[in-house]
Amino acid sequence: MPTTIDAFIALVEAGWDTDVARRPHGQRTTVVVHVDVDTPAASLHLGPLLSDDERRELLCDATCEVWFQRHGQPIGAGRTTRTIGRRLRRVLEHRDRGCVVPGCGATRGLHAHHLVHWEDGGPTDPSNLVLLCPFHHRLHHSGGITLTGPAEHLVVTDATGEAMTGASLARPPTTPPPDVPPCPGPLGERAQWWWYTPFEPPPTTPN
């Protein structure tokens, strides 16, 4: 028999689902991608061609609407998928607490990143998702760092293949700055000619 707690949880989940449908928290961007079926090329709607890295970064945490075309003519539409829901994002925030790159510590504006990319068949579940700050998300997709999952045993390596640790990134200072007397600045008095040493050319040597 359901308890009061069960009923409360059901109400909370129903409210979440309604809010997700009305204002999807995880839907940061809607990406309309046109894919040519004859060539491995993709472009934004009314926009430029995308590199592989740009396409993968956009598809990490977005709604993706794919249109297939041949010779510039649309021949069909793919599925529309909202990849990260509000409840799933909260699970990631509770688990990761911030950007997962060791030593980063960023907690705001995080992106949910697929370790196995969504377009490669990677699932949208916690074991395949980690949170990254915008800087490290872009750095990963440009090849600066590599993330190897699953999320529970994540390994982050730099461009040389070395595993990154908490000491890999510069940390902000934890002590106050040293006491340095402030510059007095100009006093506003008139400059005097004897303050300056006049230029004297070196003496010439006789030939």
UniProtKB/TrEMBL annotation:
CDD domains: HNHc
Gene3D superfamilies: 1.10.30.50
A Pfam family the protein falls into: DUF222
InterPro entries: DUF222, HNH, HNH_nuc
Coiled coil: none
Occurrences of domain HNH nuclease (ranges): 87-138
Gene Ontology MF terms in the entry: endonuclease activity; nucleic acid binding; zinc ion binding
SMART domains attached to this UniProt entry: HNHc (SM00507)
Top-rank lineage group of the source organism: Bacteria
Family: Belongs to the Rv1128c/1148c/1588c/1702c/1945/3466 family.
Identification of the protein by name: HNH nuclease domain-containing protein
Organism: Mycolicibacterium sediminis
Lineage, uppermost ranks: Bacteria, Bacillati, Actinomycetota, Actinomycetes, Mycobacteriales
